[in-house]
Amino acid sequence: MLFKISAIAVALVASVSAHMAMIEPCTRYTPNNPKCPAIPAGQLPDYNLKDPLAYNAPLCKHTTPYATPVATWTAGQSITTRFQADGAAHGGGHAQFSLSYDGGKTFVVIYEVLKHVFFTGPTSGNAATVLSYTFDLPKDVPASDKAIFAWTWVNAVGNREFYMNCADVAIKSYSNSFTGKRMTIANHVGGPDIGEFNGNYELGLEHYKNAPLITVTGNGSTPGGGNPPSPLPHVPQPSSESVPPTKPTTAEQEKPTNVVPVPTYVSSPVVSIPVVSTPPAPKPTSPSVPSGCTHGVQECAADGSGFKVCVWGVWSNAISCAPNTKCKALAPGTINCDWP
To answer: CB under 8 Å to 63, separation ≥6 — which residues?
Structure first.
């Protein structure tokens, strides 16, 4: 059965078929934030950013960076990361926020949320209650015009997977190097396997707590003239002090015990850019594009395992629903991947 919907709805339905995705700062190739830079030539929007990394996929999934950074930060300032609201949070789990200065080969951790990411405590729920995190960049992260900011996640409930979104950022700093924990990679080639938590949120924590220290270096540029201030010593071990995440539905902040800053410094405010729906993709100008289907039409697979989308007369490849969900109609003109 076919359901005709708008081009914007096509992108949104595709995005809800999976798990969780970072939308601020702009994730590489995201279709969900029109304020992001143009996608690099030869690349396509990624409507499956919520999917986990394939076991052998490269880190960040997409290895061609944006031509310009999506954000410019200053070492020591407060930054906010936001996540799409309609995903599946799989009971929380372990998450880290990291930086790479060598094109994505190695990442150093700057903040982590262990055990209950997207929630404020133990849960078997799937709907995230925390969709943003605000924390301070360490004051001694080095400067770079081509740094990579990454969010990674090992989910507590469901198939054993490794999630990763990356954003291209610039950092202003007086520092040339930074030492911190190496980012933990699990359930992915070369990394350990972390099983389903089954209520044990201590599972796999040794891979995070015992990660080796690494030192990263930048290009040494500074935010302005004059002499740099005396460097502050960096303590690579995470603090036990909790930092409250920002909830999207209330101005009131909570202090869950699972949030571990790495480390905590004095912050300065940043301006958050609101996220709006992506505009429809431009219609191809080539006269050779076939007209076998109507643009915006979607069709569930016969077994309900996924669906396909008609984009300017061409059917897309099959888009899989999240594990344990089925493609079905919610109302005329609307389909979704939901629990059976």
So the answer is: 104
Q: Cβ contacts of residue 98 below 8 Å, gap of 6+?
A: 107, 108, 109, 110, 149, 150, 152, 183
Pairing relationship of beta strands 78-83 and 22-24 according to DSSP bridges:
antiparallel
In order of 86, 88, 224, the CA distances from 308 in angstroms are 19, 20, 51
Distance CA(282)–CA(168), nearest Å, equals 25
- Per the listing, tokens 């709006």 go with 276
Smallest CA-to-CA distance from 178 within 230, 225, 143 is with 143
Exposure string (b/e) for 56-95, b if CB count within 10 Å is 16 or more?
Answer: ebebbbbeebbeebbbebbbbbebbbbbbebbbbbbbbbb
What does each C-alpha distance from 69 to 73, 101, 144, 151, 207 come to in angstroms?
10, 13, 10, 16, 31
pLDDT of residue 11 exceeding 50, the answer is: no
Read off the pTM: 0.63
CA angle centred on 54, ends 187 and 108, rounded to 5°: 60
Distance CA 312, CA 325 (A): 28
Q: State how far the Cα of 337 lies from the Cα of 315, in Å rounded to an integer.
A: 18
3-state secondary structure of 117: coil
Strand partners, 307: 300, 319
- Kindly report, residue by residue over 168-213, the tens digit of the pLDDT: 999 999 998 999 999 999 999 989 999 999 999 999 999 999 999 9
296 in Cβ contact with 10 (< 8 Å):
yes
What amino acid occupies position 130?
Answer: V
Give the amino acid at 238. P
Residue 268 near residue 77, CB atoms below 8 Å: yes
- Amino acid 273 reads I
Give the angle 124-321-275 at the CA atoms, nearest 5°: 80
- Residue 309 phi, psi (nearest 5): -130, 135
Tokens of 227: 């002499």
Span 90-99, pLDDT tens digits? 888 999 999 9
